[in-house]
Amino acid sequence: MFYLIVRNLGAPRCIDRNNKDVYEDGMSFDCTPHLECSAKEFVKEVEIICTEHPEDPMIAMVFRD
Amino acid sequence: MPIKIEPMKKLSLLLSGILLLLFVSACTSVKRFKSATYKSQDNTLVDMDLFGSRLTMEGTESSDRNLWELSASAQTQLIQILNERYPDNGQFIRSLNNEYLSRADVAALDLTEKKLRMVFTISKKRDYKILNHASGRFSPADRIEYLKFSLEIPEKYNLQFKEWNRYATEYGEIEIADVSFSRSFDLDVDGSWDTKSDVGEKSSLSRSETQEVRSRYLKLNGSISDHKIGVEEEGTREIDLTGNVIADVSLEFKGFPERLTIPLYTGESRDGTGGATVAALRFVDVLVPRMKDAPDTIHAVLQLDYIYRHVQSGWKTYQEWDDQVEYYSGTVKKEIALFTKRDYIPNFYGIGTEIDGKTMMKVRRGTGTDYPLQFKDYPDASRFLEWLRSIPEDGSISGERRNNDSGVPVMIGQNLLLVNGEPVTMGQLENIELKVIPVY
User: Fewest CB within 10 A of the end CB: N or C in chain B?
Assistant: First the structure.
C-alpha cells in the first residue's frame, strides 16, 4: 500500500492511500482528511495541490508500508 | 552739546543695521553648516535592534455571541423582554448569558493573516572619553542625519508582507494602509505639527516663505514588497534620528486547510455541568499557516544604512550654521528574532493518548471519510472529553440508548468516533487513558 503524506507545522497527515504508486507532480487532493496509514518506507516527494487552497502547490511525501 | 548726525550718515547707519540683521538672519535660518566634508565609512557609530515585537491575529473576534455583544439599545430591549418573561432572578441571569447568535464567524476563520508590531531602537555610540580629541568621532551635537533600513523575511517561511498599517517615530506618526508611503513632517510657526503627503508641493518660489513660517524636520519614505519592507528617514535642522520607531504591518502566511470540530450542546449550561449533552457535531474549515516544520523562532534580516553627522567644531552652540561637519556613512546588518512559535501556531487541541506514541481520535463522517477530531481551543476539547467521560452508564447519546457492553460503536449523529482508525465502543473508551493533546 502507498500513502500520500503532507506535513504541516511539524504534524504529519495521511491524506490518501492507494494499492499502486499513482502519485505524480501536479495531482490534486483533498487535504483535510486524516486517514490511518502505516507508512514505513519513504518512496519519493511530489508537488501536489490542495483542492481547498489551490493557489499554492505544496510538497507531499509518498511512503509505502 | 548734542551730536549732530548728517542725513547721509543716518542713512548709512540704517543700511548697516539692516545688513547686519540680514546677515544674522541668513546665518541662523539659511545656513546649514559652516563647512561639510565626507570622511569615511565607519560601521561602529550607529546600531539598530528590534526592541520588541507582537504578533496578533488580523481582525480577532470572539466567536461567542451573547447579549453583551449587542448594541446598547438592543440590550435594553432584550433585557426588558427577559425581565417580563423571567421574573425569577436565577432564570433571568441565565437568560442574559445565553448564546443568542450562532457561531457563524468560525466558518470564516483564517489564521494565516497576522498583524505585526515591531519596535526598533536606533542608538548611536556616545563615547564621552574622546570628547575633545582632534581625531575623535563624537561630540554632543552629533546626530544621525539620514537612515535607511530594511527588514527581509526569508522565503522559506512562506510568509509575506501585505501592507503597512502604521509607522511612528518620536517626531510623528502616520496611519497608513498602503504598500508604500512618502511623508514629510513640518513644524508650524505656532508650534503645531503638520504632515505633508506630497513633498513636491513646496516649489522654489515658496522657499522664502517656508523658511519663515515652517521648518521641515523629518522626511519619510516607506516601501513594502512580498518579503521586504524598507524605510528611509531624513532628519533636518537639529533632528537626530536616534530613538525608537514603531512599524505596524500586516503579514500573510501561505495557507493550509484544516477542519475543526464544533460540538453542539443541548441543555442550559455551557460549562459542561448541568446535564449538557452533545447533540451533533459541526465541522468548519479553517486556514492555518503553511510551513512544513514549525521553527521555534522566525528570523529576519535587518539592514541599516546611515549617514552620521559629526560636528568637529562649533558644537558649543545649539545652532548648526557655525558647525564644521564631518559625515560618516555606515552599514549594520544582522539577523534578528522576529517572533516565536507560540505566536503563530494555532492553539488547536485534539483528544487522544500518548501511550505508544501520539494517537489522536478521529471521526468518520457519514460519507466514510476520516477527519481528525480537533477543536479550536483547549476549553472546547476539554469540555468534549469531559462529556465523553460523563456519558451515563447506559451509554445514552442523543436520545439513543446503548449499553457499555453492547459493542456498539460510539456515534454522534452520523459521525463515528475512531481510535487508531477503528470504531470504538463506550467500554473500550473507558479503558483508554484519553487526554487533551495539542495538535501542533
Answer: N
Q: Identify whether residues B172 and B74 lie together within a single domain.
A: no
Mean pLDDT to the nearest integer, B159-188 = 71
Mean pLDDT score of chain B: 77
For residue B223, pLDDT beyond 60 = yes
- Interface predicted TM-score (ipTM): 0.93
- CB burial string B50-87: b at 16+ within 10 A, e below: beebebebbeeeebebebeebeeeeeeeeeeebeeeee
Could you tell me if residue B14 is inside a domain?
A: no
Residue B163 and residue B50 share a domain: yes
Per-residue model confidence (pLDDT) at position B274:
55
CB neighbours (10 Å) of residue B179? 14
- Cβ contacts (< 8 Å) between A33 and chain B: which residues? 369-371
CB contact under 8 A, A34 and B370: yes
Say whether residue B187 is in contact with chain A using an 8 A CB cutoff: no
The domain boundary, picked from B311, B342, B373, lies at: B342
Which of these ranges, A47-61, B67-81, B396-410, has the smallest mean pLDDT? B396-410
Q: Cα separation of B166 and B186, whole Å?
A: 19
Together in a domain, B74 and B181 = no
Q: Which domain holds residue B83?
A: 64-102
Q: Give which of B291, B247, B254, B230 is closest to B160, Cα–Cα.
A: B254
Indicate if B80 and B147 belong to the same structural domain. no
Three-state secondary-structure class, residue B13: helix
Count of domains observed in chain A: 1
Cell triple for B189:
510657526
Of the candidates B215, B216, B231, B235, the residue with the CA atom closest to the CA atom of residue B309: B235
Is B310 a member of any domain?
A: yes
Nearest Cα of chain B lies from the Cα of A47 at a distance, in angstroms, of 13
Residue of B nearest to A10 (CA): B293
**Distance separating the N- and C-terminal Cα atoms of chain B:** 102
- Which is more confidently placed, B302 or B410? B302
From B257, B421, B440, residue closest to A53, measured CB to CB: B257
pLDDT of residue B150: 93
| Chain A nearest-CA residue for B346 | A9
In chain A, residues with a C-beta closer than 8 Å to the C-beta of B421 are 35-36
Interface check for A52 against chain B (CB to CB < 8 A): the answer is: yes
Q: Are residues B306 and B383 in the same domain?
A: no
Both B211 and B161 in one domain: the answer is yes
- In this predicted structure, the answer to whether residue B189 has a pLDDT above a threshold of 50 is no
Q: Give the ranges where B59-171 is alpha helix by DSSP (H).
A: 72-85, 89-96
- Give the closest-approach CA distance of B51 to chain A in angstroms: 27
Closest residue to A9, CB basis, from B285, B345, B360: B345
Residue A24 sits in which domain range?
A: 2-64
- Average pLDDT on B119-133 reads 85
Instruction: Give yes or no for B366 touching A (CB within 8 A).
Output: no
